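re: ur question from yesterday

yeah so i grabbed the chain u mentioned. its 527 aa long if i counted rite. heres the sequnce exactly as i have it in my notes:
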Amino acid sequence: MTDVFLLSKIQLLGLFGINKLIHTKDTRAGLKAMGMGIVFLMLGAEAVFFSYMISAGYAAIGLVELVPAISLLLFSLITLVYTLIHSSTTLFGFSDFDIIMSLPVSKSSVILSRLLTVYLGNVIFGGVVLIPALVVFMNVTESPVILWLSALLIWLLAPLLPMIVSMFIGVVITDISVRFRHKNLVITLLSLTVTLGTLALSFSIQSMDMDLLADLGLQLGNAIRYLYPPAALVTAALWKRSVLALTGFAFLSITASALFVFLLSKVYTNINNALFTQHTRSAYRVTQLYAKPPNKALYRRELKLLTSYPVYLLNTCFGSVMMVGSILLLKVFGSRQISDMLELPGLSVMLQHMAPFFPAIFVTMSSTTAASLNMEGKHRWILNSLPVSTKAVFDSKIMVNLTVLLPAILFSSALLSMTFPFKFITVLMIFITPTVYALFIAVVGLSVNLRFLKYDWKSPQEAVKQSMSVIVTMLIGLAAIAAPVALGLSLPQWNQYITVAATFILAAITVGLYRSLGRFSTKKFLG
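ran it thru and got these structure tokens back, copy pasting raw so excuse formatting
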């Protein structure tokens, strides 16, 4: 087990640049890390608050016995999605695979160390949902100290089963994808499909929850136990105080994990080797060479960079997919039904008043440029050595971001404009406003990335998900949405003027930021 802890320690120190932060004397690096820590603490505090309030709400209406099952189900869904996103880069295809596998350690130790890293992430991120709910349950039921220890054990064991399920799905996806020439694109598409399926399941569970609350929780509890049997064991362990149920939950979680590690160790090396293998249709022969204009060549290079890393493509393009999916749901189910499902009264009125900003919300989640310079990594010298201008490099990165967003905006805006009886000016702004936001988020992402460069990553996951530039860009985008929406809802009679004014102001800011990019040179940020 010493090997497992040493490998885990190395990987954990590499996360969020912790090792570099410990040994650096750069004050700016410390301030950046402090800023990122504050952002994560704020997000965590918000999640804790919502979990506590929802659990307290169930307790207030006499359904406290449902709190462990519901919180465990939500915890499991978070773990499932988080692990699925990370499995493709944590378990497979990591850049230092050859170095790690050449060490005098077993394959099981490597797998365990990687699983332990993901497990700790799940314990922390899922814990902000599970722990407040269990605290409410314990306080309301006046549980003894021994039951608090049982709750602690459940929290530590809860990530294992959904982790194994998610990792198994990741193994299957990776095993299928390595048989294809464009394996990274296949991994992304399959991962996206499974992630959307998980979110759809979560949405359907929430809808069913609202319908069954009228039966005072009996049917709801049965439904959750049917959908996720371990929830029945947790409920019995805490509500009925069954030692047998707690033992069964622990045995199931630990046994499933051990079996997964054993089976994966048999095929682990083969799958990773296949990921690094290049497939060709036939032997290469020089026939005829084609020259392309520099701008087109840079655009194709940037597009290839985006599709070469599943975690990069999945995280930066997910907003576009969510935009199309959300507006499709709105068209199929109607705003009234979705308002009832999400417990958001007045959603229909809100959408009609501020419709142009609805697709723009998802646009701000899809900035490929926020990590595009980070993704150059150790190969940035290639871009630096090309005989092209800095403007051409920036334009290629912005164009790829627009390629991801504009088709989704066009389809979503057309669908949204047919959902409600909008006025002509509103229909026009439904197309224009998200397009301006797409230009804005592309330029802002690049501007922010220039100030928070991260080239020393070992895994693309670090460059995309652990980058200050990505977090800052998303916060700026949400602020740019929140300000006009809040103003428009406060002054509904002026909402059209506010929408037009906000769009023009944002367009002017975008032009100013784009011009400011001209003072950078490739020698400065790629050197």
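noticed a couple things. The chain has 24 helices and no strands. also The radius of gyration is 25 Å.
anyway ttyl
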